[in-house]
Structures are given as C-alpha cells and as structure tokens.
Write a structure and sequence with these properties.
With about 475 residues, this protein is α+β, with helices and mostly antiparallel strands. The chain has helices at about 5-10, 15-65, 70-80, 155-205, 225-275, 275-310, 320-340, 355-375, 430-440, and strands spanning about 90, 100, 125-130, 135-145, 150-155, 315-320, 340-345, 350-355, 380-390, 390-400, 445-450, 455-460. The protein starts with a helix and ends in a 10-residue tail after the last strand. The structure holds adenosine-5'-diphosphate. Adenosine-5'-diphosphate binds next to helix 8 and helix 9.
C-alpha cells in the first residue's frame, strides 16, 4: 500500500473513529482484566499463605510463652514425628546465630544471604525461585519482641503455576478482546458513516452532471437520516427551480418569437413601402402593440415561474375577500354592460383570507376576464365567496360556451389556448398564473365545465377568523 494511500486512510473519519473506539475499548478491557487478575491472584495467594501464617503464629506463641529453647524442642519433635518435613523452618537468635534449620527433602539449596536483613516485627513474605527451575518457595519471616526470628517456608510451585496459567488465559482473552475491538470498531464506524459516504457519492454524481441523483434514506429516524432527507429536499427544490427557469426560458423563446417577428416584418415593410406619415404611424402603433404583448408575456411568465418555484414575494396580510370581490366586479362592470352580460356578486361580509391582496386581485381579474371573454351576450356571470371549513372558497361562474372535456386537463398549462378561444384576445397564460399564485398561497383551484353550459372555477385560500368587534 503506498504511503499516500495510508496517510489518506489515516485522515478519514472512519479510521479515526475506529482508532478512538478501539483504544477506548481495549484500554477499559485491559484495566478490567488487570483488576480481575489482581483480585483473583490475591485470593489464591491469601488462601495459600494461610497455613504458613498459622505456623508462624503458633511458633511465635510458643516462643513467647515458653522461650526459644522450648520452641526448638517442639519444632524438632513435630518434624521428627513427620520424618519428612513439609515445611522449611529456621530459627535465629537475637545475635543472628542459627538455632535450627530444617529443609524439606528435594528442595534446592537456598542462598546463604536469602534472609539477610529481612526480619521485621510483622510477618514478611518472600518468594524465591531457584535459578533455571520451575520451583517456587515462599517464606514467612517474623522477628519476635525478644529478637528471635522465625522463618517458615513452603512450596509455592503449584500456586505459581496456577497463576501463570491464569495469566496466559487473561492474555489470550485480552488478545481476543483487542481483535474484537478493532473488528467491531471498524464494522461499527463503517455502518455509522455509510450515510455520509452516500452523501459524498451523491454530491460527486451531481458534480458530474447527474442532477437527479439523490441520497438513499434508511428511515432510521436518526440525525444522519434527517440530514439525507433535508439534503434530498434541498436538491428537489433546486431541481424545481432549475426546471422552472428552463421552462420559462423555453416558453419565452417560443412565445416571443412570433410578436418579435411580426414587429420586425412590420418595421421592414413600413420602411420599404409606407408612404406618408399616416402609414408610418400605423406601422409604429402595430410595433408598440407587439412590444406591449412581448412585455406582458415576459412579465407573466416571470411571475408564473416565481410563483411555481416558491420565490414569489408575497405580502401576506388579512384580506377582506368580500370587499375584494366587490372591488373587482366594479372594475369589470362596464365591460360586462358593453357585452350585455349581467355581473352578479354574492359574498357576505366577514370573509377573510391570509393572502397578498394584489395577487388575489390579479387572480380574480383573470377569472372574471375569462368569464366575460367566453360568455355570450345576454348571459350572466356570478362571483361568490363563502367559508369552506378553515378555508374560504371563491366561485366565478359563467353560462358561456364552456370548455370541451378534452381541453380541461390542459387549460392550466402555460401557453395553452383552447381551439375555439383563438378568436379571442389572450396569451394562454392567465390560468397558469392563477393556479401558480394560488399554490404559492397554499390554496388551489378546481374547474367544472360543459360545452354550451358554462364554466365554474372555484378557488380556495387559507381563511382567517374575522376580528371580534370591540365592545364600547
Ligand atoms: P387565454 O388567454 O386563452 O384566456 P387562459 O390561460 O386564461 O388563456 O385560459 C386557457 C384556456 O382555457 C382558454 O384558451 C380557454 O380555452 C379556456 N377557458 C378559460 N376560461 C374559460 C371560461 N370561463 N370559459 C370557457 N373557456 C375558458
């Protein structure tokens, strides 16, 4: 493995997490094992020393009560009856003169300086291993108040072998724990970091142009899952914005070409053929009209795009819808009269919505404009408002020509115009704008229509409770 790859691995969060986790796990296991071994070996040693301690206490008692001479006699008698003494025994007088030494058969010779300077008033313990052997001898030494020193020794080989065995088992377990710590740490950090790796892979894909790439979510409900969901939501929003911009651009390119071409042809024709101020003026007026159409189309397309992508700035306030309906109806009253159409309103006061008043005015104007445009002389148009649960619903109904059923699913599309509507003025953008603006408000619009029987649009907006009258 190259050194640059190694250093890259070492810098990864996965490696660092694993290392930290493994170190913590191993260190705490080691501490636990060491404590357990110390406690266990302490218990075993204490058990083993019990006999030696009892012997020392017994001989100390005899020496104190009957003198050192008697003690030597008692020990001799004890060991003579045993023939083969199990214990090492040594009694030294206060001057350091050896009064008795008994060495169990089979013991390796002890060095002469083994007990040099090792006599204290409380029992002292010494463990000695004869060089190049597996034997262990343990001694308990005690100096009595009159200066006599008693040393009792025993074979500790079995016990030390048992403890060595313990050590080997503990070392084996520790090694397995270390291995398990590293493997489990790697697996765990791998699993934990999988969502981050997915996120990185998604960002890389997007960087390479795959804009539809999304982070897989695991539905675990944890923070990383939430991050993935938020990231996907952000990507979806960006995609919508991009798609909206692309659509708007396509529409602009498509729809502006016609009036722009008409204006160009008009100017060229006027320049080549028009004679006199009147003809030029007419050509200029045609141009101004086409220009106006271009400007309106552009503004409306931009408005739709903003409303659809959620970037339209809405000045939300408590809007008196009944008032707004009356106001719009008044504006269209003259046009209705001109066309011989009766315009009726029906909205009880106290109908309020949380909305941008100027945008809702635009919605109402578009729907009213269409209702009058597609009505027949002698017909009637109704604009009504009512409460519908927590929403307010506004109906714009006409008894005009109606919409063919195959057109209904398409009327809210940008630039869509019904075949029969081509004889009427219009851009095919009114209903798209209406729907986008209502959606931006959290509202919606539905339509019911039958050819020859008129059309009914009903739009809804989130309602607000009317302000309670202030009592005098
Ligand atoms: P336009 O500028 O053509 O009116 P709109 O987006 O406002 O564009 O409407 C799209 C199409 O829906 C119209 O071309 C027409 O065919 C149909 N339409 C809309 N409103 C009505 C209505 N009140 N009665 C009949 N047809 C309608």
């Amino acid at each position: 493995m190259s050194s640059s790859l190694l250093s890259r691995i070492r810098r990864t969060t996965g490696f660092r997490l694993t290392a930290r986790y493994a170190i913590l796990y191993i260190a705490s296991s080691l501490v636990l094992f060491i404590i357990a071994y110390m406690l266990l070996s302490g218990v075993v040693r204490e058990q083993d020393r019990k006999l030696l301690r009892e012997k020392v206490n017994e001989y100390a008692f005899i020496e104190r009560s009957r003198g050192v001479g008697q003690l030597v006699d008692v020990v001799r008698r004890d060991t003579e009856s045993d023939e083969e003494p199990d214990y090492y025994m040594r009694i030294v007088d206060p001057a350091g003169k050896e009064l008795l030494t008994l060495i169990p058969p089979g013991w390796k010779p002890l060095p002469s300086n083994l007990f040099e300077g090792k006599s204290e008033e409380h029992t002292q313990w010494y463990l000695w291993q004869p060089p190049d052997t597996h034997d262990f001898y343990e001694f308990a030494a005690r100096r009595l108040p009159d200066g006599v020193t008693i040393i009792v020794g025993g074979d500790a080989r079995e016990r030390e072998e048992l403890l060595a065995q313990f050590q080997r088992i503990f070392t084996g377990i520790t090694a397995s724990v270390v291995l398990f710590g590293v493997v489990a740490g790697t697996l765990l950090s791998n699993r934990t970091l999988a969502p981050i790796r997915d996120l990185i892979a998604t960002v890389r894909s997007i960087d390479l142009g795959r804009l539809d790439a999304r982070v897989p979510t695991r539905h675990t409900g944890d923070e990383l899952d939430e991050l993935a969901s938020l990231f996907n939501a952000m990507l979806a929003r960006i995609s919508t914005l991009i798609a909206g911009m692309r659509d708007a651009l396509d529409n602009v390119a498509h729809d502006l070409r016609t009036p722009a071409t008409r204006a160009k042809v008009g100017i060229e024709t006027a320049l080549q053929t028009a004679v006199g101020e009147g003809a030029l003026r007419e050509a200029l007026m045609d141009c101004a009209e086409e220009n106006e159409r271009i400007m309106t189309t552009l503004t409306t397309l931009m408005d739709i795009s903003e409303a659809e992508t959620g970037t339209m700035r809405l000045n939300m306030e408590r809007v008196d819808l009944a008032g707004l309906i009356e106001e719009c109806a008044e504006l269209y009253e003259d046009l209705a009269q001109e066309q011989g159409i009766t315009l009726v309103t029906d909205a009880a006061p106290g109908l309020y919505a949380q909305a941008d008043a100027s945008r809702i005015r635009q919605v109402l104007a578009n729907l009213l404009d269409n209702a009058l445009k597609y009505s027949r002389p002698g017909g009637s148009v109704l604009v009504a408002g009512r409460q519908e649960g927590h929403s307010v619903a506004v109906t714009v109904r006409d008894d005009g020509e109606g919409i063919p059923s195959q057109d209904i699913p398409r009327i809210f599309e940008r630039l869509y115009r019904g075949d029969k509507s081509r004889t009427h003025r219009g851009l095919g953008l009114g209903l798209s704008l209406v729907k986008a603006v209502l959606k931006a408000h959290g509202g919606d619009i539905r339509v019911k229509s039958a050819v020859g029987n008129g059309t009914e649009f009903v739009f809804t907006l989130p309602g607000v409770a009317p302000v309670a009258p202030v009592s005098a």
